[in-house]
Design a protein that fits this description.
membrane; 7 strands; alpha/beta; single chain; DUF3105 domain-containing protein; transmembrane helix; 8 helices
């Protein structure tokens, strides 16, 4: 009996020692489910720290993780900024230039005859006689008086001949400004500069004038200005102020009359030529008034 008890006691002690040395739980408990093969369960990792991070992210079965987000640092568009600054500077310069030009133009603009230094005024009234014979005028070039029934074309016409004076006077009666120049003093680029002021501008004509006592002389009906240089700013002032100006004192008498005469453009009469008379384009003289005899009264302003 005693041997049997000892064996029992020895067996029990051996089992206790085995349990103490190997306290690992069985596979069924560690996986939280069945450990049978083919069940689809996977063993749970017991790596240190896995219990605090939770389950691993799902990868969609492809075995890849999402790539890290790229951080892009935006650089300043210095090229665009420089271009914008250049545009602003250019615009400011253009505006400044335009303002300066406008102010300069305003400074040179005149609003009355007495603002044009050296201008002379006369008193040729409406109703001057139409003649076919040469006229001896008191002014050189003439500014009014008897004239040919045909007018010289004055639609911004540039002549290279000394047009017949009696025809040019008729143009001024229609409101034109006649610019004459001394061909011995004004040539080349100087003529071109005067032509720029006339060419294509209705109510103006330009021609050489033999024997002129100044470099340039400007005429409108009852008004005259003589200057010594084509660069004189009064040339433009005179032309701008008196072309078709029917409101100025001593204004041209035939307001609204035409300046167009294609016949004269095609075949201009020159100083010393005879009149074309009835064959020419003519209009009737205006109603005679005081001063129709061509008398003049000169005033200097």
């Amino acid at each position: 009996m005693l041997r049997h008890d000892r064996r029992t006691h020895h067996s029990t002690s051996t089992e206790e020692k085995h349990v103490a040395k190997d306290p690992k739980p069985d596979a069924g408990r560690a996986g939280g489910g069945s450990s049978r093969s083919g069940s689809g369960a996977r063993p749970v990792s017991t790596t240190k720290g896995s219990s605090s991070r939770g389950p691993a992210p799902r990868t969609g079965g492809r075995g890849r993780t999402r790539p890290p987000t790229q951080v892009v640092t935006h650089s300043r568009p210095w090229g665009l900024i420089a271009a914008a600054v250049a545009v602003v500077v250019f615009a400011a310069a253009a505006i400044t230039y335009a303002v300066v030009q406008v102010r300069a133009a305003d400074a040179e603009r005149v609003d009355a005859l007495d603002e044009i230094a050296g201008i002379e005024s006369f008193d040729y009234a409406a109703g001057q006689e139409h003649v076919t014979t040469p006229v001896e005028y008191d002014q050189t070039p003439p500014v009014g008086g008897p004239h040919d029934g045909e007018w010289a074309d004055c639609t911004g016409t540039v002549y290279d001949v000394d047009v017949r004076h009696e025809n040019a006077v008729h143009s001024m009666e229609h409101g034109a400004v006649w610019i004459a120049y001394n061909p011995d003093e004004v040539t080349g680029d100087d003529v071109a500069k005067l032509a720029e002021l006339v060419d294509g501008v209705s109510g103006r004509l330009l021609s050489p004038y033999a024997g002129l006592d100044s470099a340039v002389s400007l005429q409108s009906w009852n008004h005259q200005l003589k200057v010594d240089s084509v660069d004189d700013p009064r040339i433009e002032q005179f032309a701008d102020f008196l072309t078709f100006n029917g409101e100025v004192e001593g204004a041209y008498p035939e307001i609204g009359a035409s300046c167009e005469n294609p016949t004269f453009v095609a075949d201009p009469l020159v100083a010393g030529d005879g009149s074309r008379g009835a064959d020419a384009t003519t209009d009737a003289p205006t109603t005679p008034t005081m001063g129709a005899d061509g008398s003049t009264e000169t005033t200097t302003e």
